[in-house]
Amino acid sequence: MKLYTRSGDKGKTSVIGGKRDKDDIRIEAYGTCDELNAFVGRAAALLDHERFPDIKMELAQIQHELFDCGSDLSSIKKDTTFKVDESMITFLEERMDDYTEEAPPLQRFILPGGTSAAAELHVCRTVTRRAERLTAKLMREEEMNGDVFKYLNRLSDYFFAAARVVNYRLEIADVEYERSAIVFHTSDKEK
After folding, report:
1. Is the four-CA dihedral 112, 118, 123, 129 of positive or negative sign?
2. Is residue 151 part of a domain?
3. Which one, of 21, 147, 129, 11, lies nearest residue 84 by Cα?
4. Where in this chain does the record put each Cobalamin adenosyltransferase-like domain (predicted)?
5. Which of 38, 52, 138, 148 is packed most tightly, with the most Cβ within 10 A?
6. Alpha carbons within 13 A on the beta-carbon side of 151
7. Which residues, listed in sequence order, are joined to residue 12 by a DSSP beta bridge?
8. Can you tell me the distance from the alpha carbon of 127 to that of 34, in angstroms, rounded to the nearest whole number?
9. Dihedral sign, CA of 179, 155, 161, 55?
10. Chain segment 88-136, per-residue pLDDT in tens
11. Distance (Å, rounded) from C-alpha 97 to C-alpha 102?
């Protein structure tokens, strides 16, 4: 099997149910999910399995789910059975709740960074936000699986929570943005 097909040499690419320009918003959205998947793989590679078996397992699951997002976003067929659903969103919310409970309370904005793995998870967060913005634009223009948008919204928050836990477990303090006001008044730990 050859890796190249030459079918995209004229600026078009195949989607499920047809063809689109390579710079079409749908292609941009699922292409960004693919880019994000590569960053997630790099973040997982930076994590020690002994200290972070939970996060490594979750990142592997997220990589599969990002393929699901790409599949759903690449379909223009009217009778598509979508892969991304509410259960995936609920899982991310549950993990975020656990990580928020584990990490110290947060009052101010923090700078992306700390350990290499946490910094990479922050990169994942920002690429997820770009995928989310592109998906929001696509939702305004065409029909699509709305659960993909919700998933991406939660996923960026998951990466934030996971990055904080990685730093915390490695005893590296998050660096607060020095000109930040107190923006988080109540944490789950204070309730």
Report:
1. negative
2. yes
3. 147
4. 3-166
5. 148
6. 25
7. 21
8. 10
9. negative
10. 999 999 999 999 999 999 999 999 999 999 999 999 999 999 999 999 9
11. 9
Residue 13 — φ and ψ, nearest 5°?
A: -140, 155
Q: Which alpha helices (H) appear in the chain, and where do they start and end?
A: 25-46, 53-73, 86-102, 116-141, 146-169
The span from the CA of 13 to the CA of 21, in Å, is 6
Domain count within the chain: 1
Q: How far apart are CA 14 and CA 37, in angstroms?
A: 20
Q: At what angle do helices 53-73 and 86-102 cross, to 10 degrees?
A: 150
Is 2 within the bounds of a domain?
A: no
Q: Are strands 18-21 and 12-15 parallel, antiparallel or unpaired?
A: antiparallel
Q: Tell whether 9 is covered by a domain.
A: no
Q: Within 10 A of 126 (CB to CB), how many other CB atoms are there?
A: 15
The answer as to whether 27 is a domain residue is: yes
Give mean pLDDT in consecutive 10-residue pieces for the chain, a chain of 191 residues. 70 71 86 98 97 98 98 89 97 97 93 96 98 97 95 98 98 92 67 43
Token output for 116: 């290499």
Distance CA 33, CA 68 (A): 10
Q: Distance between CA 73 and CA 33 in Å, rounded? A: 9
Say if residue 7 is exposed, middle or buried (CB neighbours under 10 Å; 0-12, 13-18, 19+). exposed
